[in-house]
Amino acid sequence: MAVEETGRETVEEINPEKESKSGVVMRSESLNDQPSPRGVLEIPVLGSDSDASSCSSNSSSYSPKKPVFQKGNRDSYGLQWKNIIENIKKKSARSFSIIPLLSSYEISRKNLRRKLAKLHGSEEEDVDIDCITVSKPSWKNFSYSELAAATENFSPENLLGKGGHAEVYKGRLSDGQIVAVKKLMRNKKEEEDRASDFLSELGIIAHINHPNAAHLIGFSIDGGLHLVLQFSPHGSLTSVLFGSPECLDWKTRFKVAIGIAEGLKYLHHDCHRRIIHRDIKASNILLTQDYEAQISDFGLAKWLPENWPHHVVHPIEGTFGYLAPEYFMHGIVDEKTDVFSFGVLLLEILTGRRAVDSSRQSLVIWAKPLLESNSVKELVDPRLEDNYDPTAMKRAMLTASMCINHLASMRPSMIRVTELLKNEDGLAEFQQKTFGGKAVIVDGCDLQDYTRTSYLNDLNRHMQLVME
Ligand SMILES: Nc1ncnc2c1ncn2[C@@H]1O[C@H](COP(=O)(O)OP(=O)(O)OP(=O)(O)O)[C@@H](O)[C@H]1O
């Protein structure tokens, strides 16, 4: 069953993002580091299932766990979640001029009840969603004054970064903890849409718990919408990879690549409902003190119930250069959309080149022939010189090749990607054979499909549309 989702048709047009004739909301953030606003949220406020699913792990010793559905147990977590929603509803009623949240809340509860009934194979009326709670540590509900004090009144000196719909400030809480405060900006977007975006991001980020995913500390709905996140001292991968005169060494690059792969594997395979991030890119990868990669910015993320092979969304949002062909051509969203973006990100890590360079050349288009001819030296970031592990580099190149396959079905799952990168099953299954002097990957990839130029044609056509 494919689920067609037609989000609101409003699209912001703030440079460098623009809506193409094909109805695609594009970001060209790799051209510069301008904000990349987004226009639409497709996840219903509460019917997003976000209140009914959980994925947890212990960050010190991670072991994926399925969520615990506890019927009839209105414990603190259930109440807390309910209170958040109620609070935002109240705030919305007070400070937002338009309040469809109340009605959409009821509709979403209905949706959730229906979906759960389907999953449980029971009648809709039988499912009591009020009683579905999950075990999870609590997050703090901050007041505006606490966050203002922590960030010195959101002073520009504490500004860590600015995205399309948020400003992120460094802050010190009263107990001394250093945090990142993500403040949703008031832009062209309707207030109600921002509240929905906030709930959607909160709903997902609050339910994930993995060393390679951003960690939520709390939130605030006082004086604006804020997420309080663990602070990442090295900022984003963009700044470390492209914005620093120092060359990121190979070992760290490879560790970051594996971390992102592990984080995506967790989102796709270890959560009760699969989570598709939809905006995997270098600026959404944060780095901890010891360069552990953390996937952040779940503003576009979507839940995908087990019996839904994919979503079909419109309009299409994302960042130019990272989008899979089936997504930008047809709006199809599933795990393989993220796998493609991961492939592009992996190429950025290997080559030191951006997904789209200053002359608007796509990294995928540039790298494909080099990957096919196994031209390691031409492909690898020249700043690395010869300081890399050639075997690991080869594995990474092969993995990237597979991830950017234009056919979604040919791309590996993130489980396979982590195995490949970590060489868990050796390179045997994944050898190269030489055909007419060309090295070609033969890991289940159809040779003809792999070497077809249709992706390049699609991408070129798409690029023309976007740039028009
Ligand atoms: N926890 C954090 N620690 C340190 N820096 C952070 C943190 N979170 C975000 N940042 C910085 O702020 C920038 C913007 O954050 P984020 O991507 O969440 O905003 P956004 O508006 O959602 O972006 P987008 O345009 O992708 O939607 C990041 O690229 C990063 O540089």
- Which molecules other than protein and nucleic acid are bound? adenosine-5'-triphosphate
Backbone CA Rg: 22 Å
Helical stretch tally: 14
Shape: globular
Fourth-tier CATH superfamily name of the domain at 235-426 and 446-467: Transferase(Phosphotransferase) domain 1
Distance between the termini: 35 Å
CATH topology of the domain at 235-426 and 446-467: Transferase(Phosphotransferase), domain 1
Number of distinct beta strands: 18
CATH class type of the domain at 235-426 and 446-467: Mainly Alpha
> Regions with pLDDT < 50 over 5+ consecutive residues?
1-78, 92-113, 119-136, 428-452
Structural class: alpha+beta
Strand content: 5-15%
Q: Describe the largest sheet.
A: 6 strands, mixed
CATH architecture grouping of the domain at 235-426 and 446-467? Orthogonal Bundle
Subunit structure: Interacts with ARAC5 and ARAC10.
Protein name: non-specific serine/threonine protein kinase
Biased composition (Basic and acidic residues): 1-21
Pfam families: PK_Tyr_Ser-Thr (PF07714)
Structure description:
Among the domains are: 140-230, 2-Layer Sandwich (Phosphorylase Kinase, domain 1); 235-426 and 446-467, Orthogonal Bundle (Transferase(Phosphotransferase), domain 1). It has 14 helices and 18 strands. The chain has helices spanning 76-95, 101-120, 144-150, 191-205, 237-241, 250-270, 325-330, 335-351, 363-372, 376-379, 390-403, 414-422, 447-451, 454-467; strands at 2-6, 18-19, 24-26, 140-141, 159-162, 166-172, 178-184, 216-220, 226-230, 274-276, 285-287, 293-295, 302-304, 310-314, 316-317, 332-333, 432-435, 438-441. It has a six-stranded mixed beta sheet, sandwiched between helices. Strand 2 and strand 3 (24-26) form a beta hairpin. The radius of gyration is 22 Å and the shape is globular. 47% of the residues are buried. Adenosine-5'-triphosphate binds at residues 35-36, 38, 160-166, 168, 180, 182, 229-232, 235-236, 279, 283-284, 286, 296-297, 299.
